[in-house]
Automatic annotation (TrEMBL):
Organism: Chitinophaga japonensis
Name of the gene this protein is made from: nnrD
Quaternary structure and partners: Homotetramer.
Designated name of the protein: Bifunctional NAD(P)H-hydrate repair enzyme
Cofactors (names): Mg(2+); K(+)
Domain YjeF N-terminal: 9-218
PROSITE patterns the UniProt entry points to: YJEF_C_2, YJEF_C_3, YJEF_N
Reactions catalysed according to its record: (6S)-NADPHX + ADP = AMP + phosphate + NADPH + H(+); (6S)-NADHX + ADP = AMP + phosphate + NADH + H(+); (6R)-NADPHX = (6S)-NADPHX; (6R)-NADHX = (6S)-NADHX
Pfam families: Carb_kinase, YjeF_N
Keyword terms of this UniProt record: ATP-binding, Isomerase, Lyase, Metal-binding, Multifunctional enzyme, NAD, NADP, Nucleotide-binding, Potassium
Signal sequence residues: none
Residues annotated to bind K(+): N58, D126, S164
Family note: Belongs to the NnrE/AIBP family. In the C-terminal section; belongs to the NnrD/CARKD family.
E.C. no: 4.2.1.136, 5.1.99.6
Length: 507
């Protein structure tokens, strides 16, 4: 699914109005109808509804929602906030329609002192500002936002299209923004809904189709995307009947050190469960038995060092290196100086895309000159802290996203920034957000599992972009299946591996 800017969404509305064709008033009716349907499904008519409406078309949606709720027997009050003397045409038309049918359900607010008393358990619908917001909320409307946010603990707040005050395409940190429990957004994700800095404002996000014209949606280029099952079905390659283990590549995994062999085992098991043909693990002496016993399907070579690895480059002479389709490096590796030196030498000798994670990323942060030596097309998988160590801190999530994308382009790498919506920046400037996964995955070792999956997909011959998009999706999907089976609390990184099978079966 593409992510459109506020300007593109306005174009999509206009395109739909011209080409469907449909009047803007009918389109508003359809958008508000989708919200009303959602509300009927989630709350019964016993809960009083207060719909706070701005003077633009977001407020117009709110006025229609009030009328549709009244039609179904809900007690709905449209509280119109006169922040401007002029209403949009569709707002005005829907105000008149509500006034004709349900005059008692209109309530005008000209100042904070007009704010109504809300009975306990009310539903608050925030239809004040949507994608038309062009600047921070100011003046007495700030007081309204504070009032609504004070009420959030005692009432359910549902934002229409965007929580009011949130800019669709830029950071709104420190700005007054309504805090919603649920956001019902139209047709496509907006960038602001995917940013961690807005998590407390958006609550749970639902994308409701309002039937914007499919031709506009398919023809309009977008830089930002959210991946989905349909996209994965185009990437996934089922195995051919005459395939043999050579077909699926031989991967080298360089991982583990004393006290962190678990990370290496998790990566190895994930790699094996994600379809690698052959796997060799390079581990320090202390890890030999651990790996052989925990991952008997993998081969194991040991470093001369006891507690950490520092010689993994040595088996990578040009003749040796070709046997490995890819290398996954980093989980539990440690950051000893000798390990960093071996990583430098490995990058001199190995030219194909690799997966770089965890301590290999921390080594990059300590020796930034190594970044430019990573083979083009490689996959980097930092969590936010690792990202900051390598690429520096930023003032907000939008700035961080730009830095992520700019680095991916400059270094010609795929950089996957982990989070609720993992952001995958590609060398061509595109960014894909992964929507699978859940907070149950915020547990030690889940990142190591991702490294194993990505290594397996590269080994099987998936192109780097296909591998990183499919890998992130499968990892989150396996996490979702694990959470459904066991709960978010009880699941572990190991159960994510156990659920990779069912995740593949769902593709
Ligand atoms: N035909 C359409 O264009 C459709 C629009 N829809 C709704 O319309 C919304 C966009 O409507 P609009 O473009 O009218 O804009 P909004 O209703 O989002 O709000 C912007 C209005 O407030 C003013 N404004 C902007 N920033 C302000 C600020 N900080 N303080 C005070 N006033 C401010 C603007 O001049 C404009 O009048 C969408 O989010 C969606 O809810 C839906 O009904 C679907 C169809
Ligand atoms: N709230 C969440 N929602 C979705 N995915 C999450 C959430 N929290 C963590 N994850 C995923 O879990 C993984 C955690 O990785 P990482 O922080 O590297 O863990 P570790 O270092 O313990 O292996 C990432 O892929 C991340 O996207
Ligand atoms: K809103």
């Amino acid at each position: 699914m593409k992510i459109f800017s506020a300007a593109q969404i306005r174009e999509a509305d206009a395109y739909t109005i011209r080409h469907e064709p449909i009047s803007s008033l009918q389109l508003m009716e359809r958008a508000a109808g989708a919200c009303a349907q959602w509300l009927y499904g989630h709350f019964d008519a016993s809960r009083p509804c207060y719909i706070f409406c701005g003077m633009g078309n977001n407020g117009g949606d709110g006025l229609v929602i009030a009328r549709l709720l009244q039609d179904k027997g809900y007690q709905a009050t449209a509280c119109v906030l006169h922040h401007s003397s002029k209403a949009s045409a569709d707002h005005q038309a829907n105000r008149e329609a509500l006034e004709r049918q349900y005059p008692q359900s209109l309530y005008d607010i000209h100042a904070v002192t007009d704010f109504p008393e809300l009975p306990a358990g009310s539903i608050i619908v925030d239809a004040i500002f949507g994608t038309g917001l062009s600047r921070p909320i100011e003046g007495w409307m700030t007081g309204i936002v504070h009032k609504l946010n004070d009420l959030q603990a005692r009432h359910t707040v549902i934002a229409i299209d965007l929580p009011s005050g949130l800019l669709a395409d830029a950071s709104s940190v420190l700005m007054p923004v309504v805090h919603a429990h649920h956001t019902l957004s139209f047709e496509v994700y907006k960038l602001a809904l995917l940013m961690p800095e807005n998590a407390a404002r958006t609550g749970q996000v639902y994308i409701l189709s309002i039937g914007l014209h499919p031709a506009y949606l398919t023809q309009t280029p977008a830089r930002f995307h959210v991946t989905d099952a349909a996209m994965m079905r185009t990437i996934y390659q089922p195995r051919q009947p005459f395939a043999h283990k050579g077909t699926f590549g031989h991967a080298l995994l360089v991982a583990g050190s004393y006290g962190k062999m678990g990370a290496a085992v998790l990566s190895a098991q994930a790699c094996l469960h994600a379809g690698v043909g052959l796997l060799t693990c390079h581990v320090p002496q202390c890890g030999y038995l651990v790996m052989q016993i925990s991952a008997p399907c993998a081969m194991c070579i040991t470093d001369p060092q006891e507690a950490y690895s520092a010689h993994f480059h040595e088996g990578l002479s040009p003749a040796e290196a070709v046997k490995y389709k890819t290398i996954g490096i980093g989980p539990g590796l440690g950051t000893a100086t000798a390990t960093a030196k071996a990583l430098e030498l490995l990058l001199e000798q190995y030219q194909q895309p690799v997966v770089i994670d965890a301590d290999a990323l921390n080594i990059m942060a300590a020796y930034p000159f190594l970044l430019s030596r990573i083979p083009p097309g490689s996959l980097l998988t930092p969590h936010p802290k690792e990202f900051e160590r390598i690429f520096g801190s930023t003032r907000n999530d939008f700035e961080r996203l730009e830095r992520l994308s700019q680095q991916a382009t400059q270094l010609q790498l795929y950089i996957l920034l982990k989070g609720r919506y993992t952001a995958i920046a590609c060398p061509d400037g595109a960014v894909y957000f992964n929507a699978t996964g859940n907070p149950g995955m915020a547990t030690g070792g889940s990142g190591d599992v991702l490294t194993g999956i990505l290594t397996a997909l590269l080994a099987q011959g998936y192109a780097p972009k296909a591998a990183v998009l499919l890998g992130a999706y499968l990892h989150g999907l396996a996490g979702d299946i694990a959470a459904a089976r066991l709960s978010q609390e009880a699941m572990t990184a190991e159960t994510i591996i156990d659920c990779l099978g069912p995740a593949f079966l769902q593709l």
